Amino acid sequence: MDDPRFWQAALAIAAPLCFYFGFRNWRLARLIDDTPLSRIRSAAQGYVELSGVALMGEGAPTVAPLTQLPCAWWLYRIEKRIGEGRDARWHTINRGASITPFQLQDGTGTCLVGPVGADVRPGQRDSWRGSAPWPTALGGGQRFFGPESGDYRYTEHRIGEREQVSVIGEFRTLGGVAGPEPTVEVMRLLAEWKQDQPALLQRFDANHDGVLSQAEWERARAEARAQIERQPPRAGAPLQSVIVKPGDGRPFLIAAHDLAALARRSRIAAAALLLGFLAAVTALAVMLLGPD
Q1: Does 184 lie in the same domain as 227?
Q2: Which pairing describes strands 110-113 and 119-121: parallel, antiparallel, or unpaired?
Q3: Of 8, 85, 182, 285, which alpha carbon lies 20 to 30 A from 160's?
Q4: What is the pLDDT of residues 267-277, one digit of tens each?
């Protein structure tokens, strides 16, 4: 492309993107560096970092939707290829993430992790292609990776059972006369509803497109919270430690990675992206202010 307007537009888009992602990586590195590691048994109430092994939550086993593999947490995305040749692109047609709380165990105690609203960095990832809107070739926990062909692409991320995980968020010890934390109970109820997808869609899919939009999902959450709040408190409930998204807007991080290494990579990425921001701004200024 020899048209200078193309490069001006490209630089005008690249500069703020480099700044945003550079700042985001710098903030993540500072978060990890500034939050001390605590043990579950002795952790203070408030914003903490915990580290241990991930275990499934209580109740029905957690199974990843695409691979049918047991895990503590999952996220999946299904994309369809649209167009041909250079015009081909991938369009997301289905996606979902686990909202079921899982357990974190560090040798001194066990803490419940509510993943809703978290920035999750999982350690396991599978991606493959096929010819159907849902990967029917997968079943019984057996992964099938055929030739890289097909108009559908399936991607699944998981935190495996007994995988090492670090969590930074708001730590609370709950229970007693007041009973469990409503947020945790809401997540448990939503997880139960998601086990029966047809009933969930019939109840909350207002436009009948087969997928819950963000607004429809928020309506489901509001209904679940209202249902929990209508229940009478349970006296004598056992104490339960939980770590959830902070109410004051601070980051909530769940990472199946070594946090020191993640902080180093984030600092390097932040430096590179901020240099890219300065280069893009400089180049754009030269193009706009230089001689024609």
Answers
A1: yes
A2: unpaired
A3: 182
A4: 899 899 889 88
